Structures are given as structure tokens and as C-alpha cells.
Amino acid sequence: MQDWPLGTQRFVFDTIDSTMAEARRQAPAIAGAAWFLAHEQTAGTGRRGRAWDSQKGNFAASLLIRPNTTPDQLALRSFVAALALYDTLVALTGREEVFTLKWPNDVLLRGGKLAGILLETLNDGQGHPALIIGIGVNLANMPSPSKLEERAIGPQSLAQSLGVKVSPETVLDTLAVRFDHWEHQLATYGFGPIRTAWLAHAANIGKTITARMGDRSITGTFKTVDETGALRLQAPDGLHVITAADISF
């Protein structure tokens, strides 16, 4: 194991309903940070309550942290997590050129979805908010196309696409260290360095994308991610600043 982040707890389960649920259950008893890893989830969830297909051999983990910051700054941890995961994948595969970051919270492998990141805030009612960051990575397997939503980006897996086999615990040991690094950068220097690093690995900047928000969609050119983490989309009717959407290429 690499140098595990000081003060961060580590829990590993063979089978559990979901690491997000376990983090919620244990949050009242944990004052600091903790990682929860499951080799198998029976009720994993993704964004907007969608089911997350979590098969054995894949990576399914959640991080519980308590940043001393404002609520609007909590959402920036999706960029921290994405950069940490990008670094982890590059370190374990040696293949920097095949990975890109998709706003707001996916990691792509050769343009297909390899990993997803989910943020959830908790409030204990005493002014001590906690943040749970769920991360799922298709290490060994990927979901069947029949399980994908319409217009969803096709999946990829590390083993099937690159022939690279790594264990979930190996990913966790590297990821925890890299997250700790980028979290320190955010706490020390603000979002600027995080934004710059994220944009350096972003997918489809300068290209046409579609942002879907409920039953409304906007198609235009992906210009950048601004200082708040919002996506700036140049459409025929003007510049749109988008804080939450499903993005397709």
C-alpha cells in the first residue's frame, strides 16, 4: 500500500447494498474522512437515482469527507475526484492518451464511459455538513448495452479495452493518495489550479455537444468550464451558463 492519507479511515466489504448507503450509516460516528470499498454492490446508484451496474471485479467506493467550506464549494469536489481518478488510471496503466474527463463527473476511455462520480451532501443539523463522493469504475466488466439509457455514451472497461487488470483495492490505495493531493491543492490555492488541470484533460472542448436538462436541450459549442465549475455553451441564441445537465456528444 502507498502512504495512506493520515487520519483517513478505510473500510472494505465483500458485499454490501451500496458504499454510499454505508457512508451515510456510519457518518454520525466518523468525525474525519473515510473510504468505503465494496467488491460487490447489490443496490448501487448513479446520478438522479439511476441504478449503477456494479459487477464483481469492478471498482465501487465512496469517500466521506467534511470540508470546512461553503455549500457551493462542495460541488467542486467532483473535479477533485475526477483529477484524482485520472491520475490513478494513468499511474496504473501508463496510458495517459486514452483517458479524458467529461463534464460534470465522468471519466472516459477512448470516448466511452469508464467511470462515474456522484456527490451527495449530508447535514447533521448542527452545522457540520458532510460530503459523500461515490466513484464507480468498470475495471473488469461493463454493463450490457441493453441496460443503458437512450443517448447514453457507450461503456468501456479497463480489462476489455486495454487488457489491463487491476484489483479494486489497488485502485483505492492510489486513488486515496491522489485525492488527498488534489484536495490539498483546492484547500490551499482555490479552484484555479484544479480548473486548469481539469481543462487540460477535458473531452470535446471546442466541439459541438448537447446539454439536456429535463425535457429541455441546448446544442452548441463547448467553450470552457468557468471559475464556478459551470459549463459555458455557445449556442445560436447566445452563451449559456449551465450548472447541471446530461451531456452528449
Describe the structure.
- The protein has 249 residues and is of the alpha+beta class.
- It is globular, with a radius of gyration of 17 Å.
- The strands form 2 sheets. A 7-stranded mixed β-sheet has the order 1-2-3-7-6-5-4, with helices on both faces.
- The protein is 27% helix and 33% strand.
- The longest helix has 22 residues, at 168-189.
- Strand 10 and strand 11 form a beta hairpin.
- The protein folds into 2 domains: 8-200, BirA Bifunctional Protein, domain 2 (2-Layer Sandwich), CATH 3.30.930.10; 208-248, Roll (SH3 type barrels), CATH 2.30.30.100.
- The model has no long low-confidence stretch (mean pLDDT 91).
- It has 6 helices and 12 strands.
- Helix 3 crosses helix 5 (168-189) and helix 5 packs across helix 6.
- Compressed to H and E, one letter per element, the order equals EHEEHHEEEEHHHEEEEE
Could you state the CATH homologous superfamily of the largest domain?
Bira Bifunctional Protein, Domain 2
Number of domains: 2
Major beta sheet summary? 7 strands, mixed
Strand arrangement within the widest β-sheet reads 1-2-3-7-6-5-4
| Low-confidence regions | none
- Please indicate the percent range of residues in DSSP E strands (runs of 2 or more): 25-35%
CATH architecture of the largest domain: 2-Layer Sandwich
What would the average pLDDT be, to the nearest integer? Answer: 91
Task: Supply Rg.
Answer: 17 Å
* Total beta-strand segments: 12
CATH class type of the largest domain? Alpha Beta
- End-to-end separation: 38 Å
- Put simply, the count of helices is 6
CATH topology of the largest domain: BirA Bifunctional Protein, domain 2
Secondary-structure-derived class: alpha+beta
What percent of residues adopt helix (DSSP H or I)? 25-40%
Described by the principal axes of the CA atoms, the overall outline is globular
